[in-house]
Amino acid sequence: MLELKKVTKVFNPGTVNERVALKDLSLSLGDGEFVTVIGGNGAGKSTMLNAIAGTWPVDGGSIVIDGEDITSLPEHRRASFIGRVFQDPMMGTAPNMQLEENLALAYRRGQRRGLGWGVTKAEREIYREKLRELGLGLEDRMTAKMGLLSGGQRQAVTLLMASLRRPKLLLLDEHTAALDPATAATVLEISQRIVEENDLTTLMITHNMSDAIKYGNRLIMMDQGSIILDISGEDKKKLTKRDLLMQFAAVAGRQEETDSVLLS
Amino acid sequence: MLSPLNLLKNIPGGVAQGLIWGIMALGVYITFRLLDVADLTVDGSFATGGAVTVMLITSGTPAPLAVLAAVAAGMLAGLCTGLLHTRFGIPAILSGILTQLALYSINLRIMGMASNRAVSVDRYPLLLSSRYVTPAIISGAAVVLVLVSAMYWYFGTEQGSALRATGSNPNMSRAQGINIDAMKVLGLALSNGVVALAGGLMAQYQGFADINMGRGAIVIGLAAIIIGESVSDSRLLSRWLNFFGKLCFVVLGGVAYYLVVVVVLWLRLNSNDLKLFTAIIVAAFLAIPYLRGRARQGRRRVKGERDA
Question: What span, in angstroms and rounded, lies between the C-alpha atoms of B72 and B66?
């Protein structure tokens, strides 16, 4: 479904601040795989997701989704393949627009936006049903301005928006990191359900090792712009937090990193 | 002696001109409020609208067609600003200033190198004129009604929604597959089309186009928006007004602004100071919500300390 081949990204090339964020990164994702991504700060997790989403062009390598090379496509054209939820709850929705208008914008992802009505009666019913499934009572607030909703509600709506038009790939960039623990758990459960119901190929970055183990059917660990650990299938099911820390120390070969990963 | 009768006599004319400035404010609203861009092109495109309209009417074109051509010229100006901003990475505000500067020369060329051109209502059939104030108010109000309806419709469509989303959250818009560069160019073109329409009406109303007629137009537009919104967003009204109502209040803001101008002129204050007054009024209206917000935050902090 997704094929990264030797993707390289260098920030501030040719300056004292030059930083290689992705180093010949290769990754292959099968249809319906739900991959959790862990790694310390600056490991390149978000950079990888941004490279796939097309936030900026990469410096080398290729990105292929479902057989189509999207390496040189601008961000808004890639959007027809990709659903995204960001870390910042403010980033995924338009605050001055109504809840249903936000959903309607997402419903037209990858479609031509013409002079038909922005929100039609028929689709309102679809949204109401989908919002009811979230179980947050949002089905009664469809004309409320998005900016009035809480962070957790916004992330739940952004998830809905990312999956409303089934994407080939769902990118979750620490989408629960800015939420309180209870809300984060709710949003993660919703994420899990949406991924399963739609059988979505998913990349989810998390800072929480337990979540990385609990969710998904494959786990990758990144360090210094490369993937240093890739566990799936039965191995992933048997994985414990302790294993992960040991693995990290073994693969990275740097004991002190264990602490920083533990603490982060 | 200040005669109240004189003031009363000047009010209808003030309303007519206020409606035209209100139409211009609707154009500014598209960029300033919906697209979240301060576009300074309008000072130039307002005069472009006037120049194109007058030159075409005096060369025998029917007034409605002349105004349509003015709209097209304004859209072209907005297109330039949009392309400078999105294609060449020039900050939006500077792109607008560049186009505005270029338009000064272009407007002079349109008017055959004269700094003003007259169009007499006695010789040409105009859409409105200061000579016939009541019909001018009716024509102005009719244009407002059509324009506000068109905007209400357009910004409810898929394309209009995408344009509003671009202004509200460009990040989210890209993630939802919206080409935000295209939306910005489109918004700037539409905005300046409306502004040029207002310029075309103003030139007919006052009977001439002038190279300086657009100077400070952006500030007048902002004044109209801010005055209108201070009423339409008030606690009393905001619940009852939809987008259509809000746009109407923007136009009324333009009328209110121009009535203040009429009073200033009536008070025999030096009309050269008018732009200074306008700037002060707009600065004050822009500052008030900010200062009020800070005051509220300050109180909350004090209260928090007491609670702790």
Answer: 10
* For A145, nearest residue in chain B (alpha carbons): B168
Residue contact A94–B169, C-beta within 8 A: yes
Res. B139: pLDDT tops 70: yes
- The helix/strand/coil state of B65 is helix
* The token pair that represents B101 in the structure block: 């500067």
Structural domains for chain A: 2-92+151-263 (3.40.50.300)
- Could you tell me which residues come within 8 angstroms of residue B61 by beta carbon, excluding any fewer than 6 positions away? B69
The tens digit of pLDDT for each residue in A183-220 reads: 999 999 999 999 999 999 999 999 888 999 999 999 99
ipTM here: 0.90
Considering only CA atoms, which of A76, A77, A81, A80 is closest in space to residue A29? A81
Residue B205 gets the label, from left (phi > 0), alpha (psi -120 to 50) or beta, of alpha
Question: In chain B, where are the structural domains located?
Answer: 4-214
Determine the distance in angstroms separating the CA of B159 from the nearest CA of chain A, rounded to an integer.
Answer: 5
From chain B, which residues contact A within 8 Å (Cβ)? Answer: 154, 156-162, 164-165, 167-169, 171-180
Taking each helix axis from N to C end, the angle separating B4-29 and B42-58, rounded to the nearest 10 degrees, works out to 110
